[in-house]
Write a structure and sequence with these properties.
This protein has 248 residues and is α/β, with parallel strands linked by helices. Helix content is 37%, strand content 20%. A hairpin with a 2-residue loop joins β4 and β5.
Amino acid sequence: MQLDVFFGTQEITPADVSGRVVAIIDVLRASTSIAVALANGARAVIPFESSEEVVTRAKQLAREDVRLAGERKMRPIPGFDLGNSPREFTRELVEGKTVLMTTTNGTGAFTTVQGARDVIVASYVNFTAILTMLRSALRGGADVAIICAGRDRQFSLEDAACAGRYVHLLTRRVSDVKLNDAAAAASLVDRKYGGNLQRLFGAASHGRALTEAGFAEDLDVCAAVDSYPVIPVYQDRQITKVGPDRER
């Protein structure tokens, strides 16, 4: 089986994801916010590349059924209900709602996964749940691709470290897995920081930028491993969680 990591989305080709189980990672903050929203009862999260697409789609739905969420350069989009802080996606605000979301980095990654067998959303807050699914996929003979959304289409330390933790633990328990160079490099990043996510976020440029912008508390949420143990699955252009009402 093949386990590949991709740093950023700009060079991904259809062949890189075709027939594979794909995990998308945007630790700071879209992947985390999506997991929090679904754990708190959101009906679905629908990712969009632009705020204009969000507004257009919202007009097609009953306003009381949706929440508009998004950010540009870390800041909430004016007129939207929510930004991209995971602390905003409370049960009171999202339960039973469809969240229409656009972010600078994370939501655009979903345009690269056409042809994948399964697409899931991974982060630290749902780490073990996603690890279990990826391990099962590899043992079943599926190839896996982990896509790091990155920051502004560039490498991001926190996404690479999270991907590396998946690589490290998957290869420990599953034999005969081949890695691309990015997967091997991601594993080395994870070994450097280990479980010290506050140190990781402090070293990452995006983590420092969020702190400077007043979002330091978001980093605490993003670093809370397994705090929202859901499996978000992207299918038919929307993200819902695996559970009693939805089977993989």
